[in-house]
Amino acid sequence: MTSGHFTSLPIDSIWVNREKRQRRELRGIQELGFSLQAIGQLHPIIVTRENELKAGERRWTAAKSIGWTHINVQFTDELDEAQLQLLELEENVRREDLTWQEQCLAVDAYHKLRESVDPAWDMNKTAAAIGIDRSLIGKYRAVAKEINDGNDRVKSAPALSTAIGITTRSAQRKQASVLETVARVVDPSLPPV
User: Which of 53, 70, 52, 85 is nearest to 7 (CA)?
Assistant: First the structure.
């Protein structure tokens, strides 16, 4: 997705708008720093012409932590907006150090963005693109919806499996309620369940 044309910028000239970032926690910085020292920077970070970081925050942070003064970048105006968002989301979804909440939100955002660019996009294509089993995509998206809707019980669940369980049971209760309502419309004499 990158253009292949990179620029080296002073590392301290780059800044992060925390409110717009998908990733909330940066983990594995020391290990990534070791990797940068050993093999160098394989992928550029993505910045605006104003040097606002758009993708590659872990690489930027790791490079700073090992004392680099410059880092390779690609400018956002060399990519369209959908490519930028997809690049950040895909990069984040493939990382194992996202919290389960961040993972669900990133998968959902990635799927929605792909769908907006390609009307034929479906969850099978999302699964193939990001390397996650198809059966998990729907669960991640359902959990993300609950988080986005402000469901604190789901958001604060101790584990993804718990959040999926809460979300699944809630959906089942809603479905049962709809079926009961339809049954009562058809036959108002039915006893309450």
Answer: 70
